[in-house]
Write a structure and sequence with these properties.
8-stranded mixed beta barrel; 12 helices; binds ligand C2E; binds calcium ion; Phytochrome-like protein cph2
């Protein structure tokens, strides 16, 4: 056993070191990315299923690395979280999203909304250092933009271990008129009690449900139940990961309010989204 242990040690250490070194380099590069204009905000339409119109968009951050090319947020968001850089990235995302929301509300649709993602670390950050809630309010004031232009997407886990900070933050957002969406619904310990306890505006059905939608399937039954329940609690429902016309039709028939997914469009750069919005 001792021998096997030693072998394992000898075999895995270099690989682990390479991975750790890689993470360190990438984190370092991320610091530069913020200053060097390498981040971009992409937008994916959220479509009103009954009319097919684009009512909203989700803002998704992209990193164009000078050597590695496009790095996925699934790779760099965790690094941003462990290094604390997520707060600066989140601030940049907020400003960028608010600026576009202002423009699209003024020029295309006065009710247009943009949703932004917040990881638990950002959401629980108590501000007071120039990034976060006070800065958001200042920026909204400067733009003359109502909070209703923006939706913050959070995940279920946050509400499960709901601390005072979390409920305070939810109340602050509500005060500013900013709406809240529960992201990836159905992937965690979906407890429905907190939907009543907290003031949530949108529920986003995770794409793992959408993927397996078929008439009479159990995921269909679950989705229908979620939609009925959400509506009873006064929430609107957005289905994620809509890739086929069949999925869209099943969701629309089940009363789902909005759909988002490759069927309508992939996340695209702001200029492309701008054109799509003006000439659908
Ligand atoms: P998410 O919030 O669940 O975002 C939805 C993800 O699903 C996006 O991946 C989107 O490109 C992808 N998607 C959309 N439609 C479809 C579809 O029809 N089929 C499939 N297979 N996928 C679809 P993306 O852009 O790679 O983002 C991954 C995750 O990174 C996001 O998951 C979110 O948790 C995080 N993220 C992205 N931008 C930000 C940000 O600005 N701040 C924070 N904190 N997290 C972000
Ligand atoms: Ca999201
Ligand atoms: Ca998410
Ligand atoms: Ca999601």
């Amino acid at each position: 056993a001792k021998n096997a242990g030693r072998n394992r040690y000898a075999y895995f250490t270099p690989a682990l070191q390479v991975a750790a070194l890689n993470r360190m380099r990438l984190t370092n590069d991320l610091r530069g990315a913020l200053k060097g204009d390498q981040l971009a905000l992409y937008f994916q339409p959220i479509v009103h299923l009954a009319t097919g119109r684009i009512h909203k968009a989700e803002a998704l951050v992209r990193w164009q690395h000078p050597q590695r090319g496009m790095v996925s947020p699934c790779e760099f968001i965790p690094l941003a979280e462990s290094s604390g850089l997520i707060l600066e990235i989140g601030q940049w995302v907020f400003h960028e999203a608010a600026d576009w929301a202002q423009r699209w509300r003024a020029e295309v649709d006065p009710a247009f909304q943009i949703s932004i993602n917040q990881s638990p670390l950002e959401f629980q950050h108590d501000g007071g250092d120039g990034v976060g809630y006070e800065d958001w309010l200042r920026h909204l004031r400067e733009l003359g933009l109502p909070g209703q232009a923006l939706v913050v997407e959070i995940t279920e886990g946050l509400l499960l271990d709901a601390t005072a900070t979390v409920s305070d933050k939810l109340l602050q957002l509500r005060d500013a008129g900013i709406q809240v969406a529960l992201d990836d619904f159905g992937t965690g310990y979906s407890s429905l009690s907190y939907l009543k306890k907290f003031d949530i505006d949108y529920l986003k059905i995770d794409r793992s449900f959408t993927r397996n939608l078929a008439p009479e399937s159990s995921d269909m039954a679950l989705s229908e139940a979620i939609i009925v329940m959400a509506h009873k609690l006064g929430l609107k429902v957005i289905a994620e990961g809509v890739e086929t016309p069949e999925q869209r039709d099943l969701l629309a028939r089940a009363g789902c309010d909005y759909g988002q997914g490759y069927l309508f469009a992939r996340p695209i750069p702001a200029a492309e989204f701008d054109a799509l919005l003006r000439h659908p």
